[in-house]
Amino acid sequence: MSDITSLAILTIFPLCMIFATFYDLFTMTIPNRITMALIVGFIVLAPLAGMGLITMAWHFGVAILVLIVGFMLFNIGVMGGGDAKLLAASALWFGTAFTLPYVLLAGIFGGALTLVIIVARNFSPPAWVLKVEWIMRLYDKKSGVPYGIALGPAAMIIFTATPWFDYIVSGKAMI
């Protein structure tokens, strides 16, 4: 086990997901640099953590499938493009075993978030909120739902059950 590799894993994935969550909350966008950092981080760290090429290929296959589905959802107006890319980049880290639980948990969080925003949009915002631009965007019925707010926490919860976390804790190679 490399302490540097463990530290990099523990830094890159969580920080990217946390940054995406808050960036989406405040701006309703997710920058491509976050998605690229996740992809590059995976490419560099997976072999260092002992992940084999076949397993990496499966992870890429899952990510591509998630990206295709995400862009189908984008095309029908259900999901933003940045959300679709973030979902696929995080699925790259989760692979075949953890992507479905991640998507299901993100769906639960996203559904709850959507309900809260829909309900809030049916009420007038408090006076103090009127000058807070990012909160007013959440009240705007013409804007979407910043789904990154659901993707980040779901990813953080699932991450703790993955071989990535096992590697950090015990040094067990990912194979």
What would you say this structure looks like, in words?
This protein has 175 residues and is mostly helical. The chain contains seven helices and no strands. Helix 2 packs across helix 4 and helix 4 packs across helix 6 (148-159).
Q: State the assembly state of the protein chains.
A: single chain
Strand element count:
0
Estimate the global geometry from the Cα principal axes: elongated
Helix count from the secondary structure assignment: 7
Instruction: Provide mean pLDDT, rounded.
Output: 95
| Global structural class | mainly alpha
Largest pleated sheet: none
Distance, first to last CA: 13 Å
Rounded to an integer in angstroms, the radius of gyration calculated over CA atoms is 17 Å
User: Helicity, in percent?
Assistant: over 70%
- Low-pLDDT runs of 5+ residues are none
User: Can you write the helix and strand succession as a string?
Assistant: HHHHHHH
Give a short overview.
The protein has 175 residues and is mainly alpha-helical. It contains 7 helices and no strands.
Helix/strand layout:
Layout: H1 3-27, H2 32-48, H3 53-75, H4 81-121, H5 133-139, H6 148-159, H7 163-170
Give keywords.
elongated, 175 residues, single chain, 7 helices, mainly alpha
